[in-house]
Input
Amino acid sequence: MSASPIHADTGLGAPAWGAVIAMMLGVFGLVTAEFLPISLLTPMAADLHISESLAGQAISTTAVLAFVASLLVSSATRALDRRHVLMGLSGLLIVSNLLVAYAPGFLALLLGRMLLGAALGGFWAMSTAIVMRLMPEPLIPRGLSIMVSGVAAATIFAAPVGSYLGSVIGWRQVFLLAAGLGVLALAVQFYTLPSLPPRGHGSLSTLLRVMRRPRVAVGMLAVLLVFSGHFALFTYVRPYLENVTGVAITTVSAMLLGFGVANYAGTYFGGFMLERNVRLTMALPPLAIGAVGIVLGGTAGAPWLVSALIAVWGFAFGTVPVAWSNWVAQTVPDEAESGGGLLVAAIQVAIALGAGGGGLVLSQGGVTGVFGLGGMTLVAAALLIALWMGRQPRTAADCPV
Output
């Protein structure tokens, strides 16, 4: 794990595997912290004396700040070494988790989650470009896959392990452990990341030019529908399992673990399917998740049936990030970094819409209403993708999707 691979800045020479692992640990720590409130929503709300719908706004607040950071971080830090920027963002992750762990009330919780949003959006906006500088060109896909594996690992860890540990040691101690993950990531980054002088001139003008492309604009609308529908469901899955299905916390943890494992498998299945049928791979998962949401919203099924449906949901969603990353690479190959930044921003807006809108529906119509609305949003997304992609060019020379 050399801290200074000879050609790290040019992308030539020996691959900086240690630095890529440091990036993966950063992703793991950030995504784990982002989704911990989903598994701890009930005890957090009770301890802070707020409603579950208000506690859910902590997730939407994180998404809003991540959106802003993903668009502004390049221009705001254009004079700084990227090594220092990444380590600073990891420091924000640590401070955020400590603020949440010791939060005396909702405002402190909100501040902590705002800092997390800034760290999350900034890290993701720069991550692909940095991995490209750490790896020789033939190994860039492998380096990116290692980094992104932190997301799947966090999906498995944050929900089931978070809910279980929360019932054993308390939700505040779980966030202290999350701060420890941030310390580990920061330490590994300190020892492995080489100096990465800034490149280019960060600007919003390129983002705006890419966004004006018709296929990109429609694609971003589809992203908003898919991810907002999913997070309307996922943010309030614990209240659904406890209040509608009536299962114990140990069963909730087991169901969420099933979701995470199925999600991990779905990630690899998505890559397999993209090589065979892009349109089906992009349209079928939101349709499947939407159907699951509608079924769950309309019935209080037996625990074994709910568990099976949640596993199907996890598997289907595992294909979604892979499919949309592939779409960005094919649709805007000339501005892949800007396209990726727009994708991150759109996803964060969708998380805010899903968690925030779901909270409003929860306070008015209950958790089954949230699942019904989220399910219908996903079905609408699937129909848009199927119709829109059916009209897309079929050759790589003609801007394929």
